[in-house]
């Protein structure tokens, strides 16, 4: 009975990770499909009420939310891996350093060759901070996470009050730059790589100012949650989950509405989104946990869990798919797909990944890239271990 419960609890975490993959793809695919989001510009070719509605819905419910969930789960899994190493009497620090090194290499290659921007290399760098803080008390970890958000609030609030961002967001210049980027993305492989490399400073600035600090905060909260095994000690009838839904949706959607109304270039709107996104992310987690622990929710857990178990392979696979669809390496559809069609491509790619994850894990214990990273972590030759061998 305990083995069944443990397997179910692990599936909860994998299912949440699979759900996060869909949200991350919906965001990332926009940067692969066109150069306009990269330059914070509106594509004049897609200016209908439907196009604006899709952007609005994404701003309210998706943007800046799902990377927090992925980061929280990274911190949670980090803690579980550390506890597993302690139980096995294995040295955790050299293993995790090799793992973070492998992640950094994968992320660097990913950000240059496959897509504009990358989160894996960021995880590797910030993971070093998490490693250094692995023995801090829960209270200290939560205070640091809270301090990060307090710092961001003060910084963004001061920027909103005293910095005129309109001087950096000239629409004419932004549209021209976006059109050039879109054309390059539809060009040759060298053109695509050139755009990825040129975007690195802008992406790096975003990481330093907002995404990096919030990722560390989510890591720390996830680590504390992992220590207390919060995701393993819950069920659908928890009153706490209902409270998280009530508060999280109320605050998170309100912040999303303000962000959607202000747009990416409005510092006040970005401030509201940064401060309220964790609430909506928590509400998503609570909702999915309640659904998966309902009478009919087991099927959803079993559907999503394999995709989350192969999260690294699927994350990189999403970039391969979007490159083949939108860049000149493949069909060259960059700039030719509407916002609604872009979301449709995202859903289609994710559905295919869910199916392929089920097929792969019916024969193998680890995903393709997970097997390689596991070998780097353990300092051994890659082995994907067929299920019959594992048994």
The largest β sheet comes out as: none
The sequence of SSEs as H and E is HHHHHHHHHHHHHHH
**Gyration radius from CA atoms, angstroms:** 21 Å
Number of helices: 15
Oligomeric state of this protein: single chain
Mean pLDDT: 89
Strand content: under 5%
Detail the poorly predicted runs: 1-9
- Which of globular, elongated, flat, extended, rod-shaped describes the shape? globular
Structural class: mainly alpha
Would you write up a description of this structure?
The N terminus is likely disordered. 76% of the residues lie in helices and 0% in strands. α1 runs parallel beside α12, α5 runs parallel beside α8 and α11 crosses α13. The radius of gyration is 21 Å and the shape is globular. The protein has 15 helices and no strands. With 391 residues, the protein is mainly α.
Defining key terms:
391 residues, globular
Outline of this structure?
The chain has 391 residues and is mainly α.
Give the topology.
Blueprint: H1 2-33, H2 49-61, H3 66-88, H4 92-113, H5 120-132, H6 138-162, H7 171-185, H8 189-227, H9 239-262, H10 267-292, H11 298-309, H12 311-326, H13 339-361, H14 368-378, H15 387-390
């Amino acid at each position: 009975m305990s083995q069944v419960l443990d397997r179910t609890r692990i599936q909860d975490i994998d299912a949440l990770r699979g759900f996060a993959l869909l949200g991350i793809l919906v965001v990332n695919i926009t940067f692969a499909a066109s150069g306009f989001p990269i330059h914070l510009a509106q594509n004049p070719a897609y200016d209908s009420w439907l196009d604006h509605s899709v952007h609005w819905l994404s701003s309210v419910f998706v943007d800046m939310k799902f990377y927090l969930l992925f980061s929280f789960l990274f911190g949670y899994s980090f803690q579980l891996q550390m506890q597993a190493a302690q139980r096995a009497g294995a040295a955790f620090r050299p293993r995790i350093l090799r793992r973070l090194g492998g992640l950094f290499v994968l992320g660097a290659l990913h950000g240059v060759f496959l897509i504009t921007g990358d989160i894996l290399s960021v995880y590797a760098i910030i993971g070093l901070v998490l490693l250094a803080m692995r023995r801090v008390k829960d209270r200290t970890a939560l205070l640091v996470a809270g301090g990060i958000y307090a710092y961001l609030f003060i910084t963004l609030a001061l920027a909103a009050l005293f910095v005129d961002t309109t001087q950096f967001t000239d629409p004419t210049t932004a549209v021209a730059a976006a059109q050039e980027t879109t054309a390059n993305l539809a060009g040759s492989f060298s053109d695509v790589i050139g755009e990825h490399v040129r975007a690195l400073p802008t992406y790096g600035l975003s990481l330093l100012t907002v995404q990096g600090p919030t990722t560390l905060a989510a890591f720390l909260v996830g680590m504390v949650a992992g220590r207390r095994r919060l995701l393993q000690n819950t069920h659908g009838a928890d009153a706490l989950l209902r409270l998280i839904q009530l508060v999280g949706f109320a605050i998170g959607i309100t912040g999303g509405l303000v962000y959607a109304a202000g747009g990416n270039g409005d510092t006040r709107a970005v401030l509201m989104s940064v401060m309220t996104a964790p609430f909506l992310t928590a509400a998503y987690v609570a909702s999915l946990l309640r659904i998966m622990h309902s009478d009919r929710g087991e099927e959803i857990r079993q559907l999503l869990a394999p995709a989350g178990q192969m999260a690294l392979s699927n994350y990189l696979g999403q970039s391969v798919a979007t490159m083949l669809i939108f860049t000149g390496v493949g069909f060259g559809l960059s700039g030719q797909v509407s916002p609604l069609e872009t979301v449709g491509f995202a859903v289609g790619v994710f559905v295919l990944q869910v199916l392929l994850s089920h097929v792969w894990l019916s024969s193998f214990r680890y995903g393709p890239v997970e097997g390689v990273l596991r070998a780097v972590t353990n300092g051994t030759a890659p082995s994907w271990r067929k299920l019959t061998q594992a048994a």
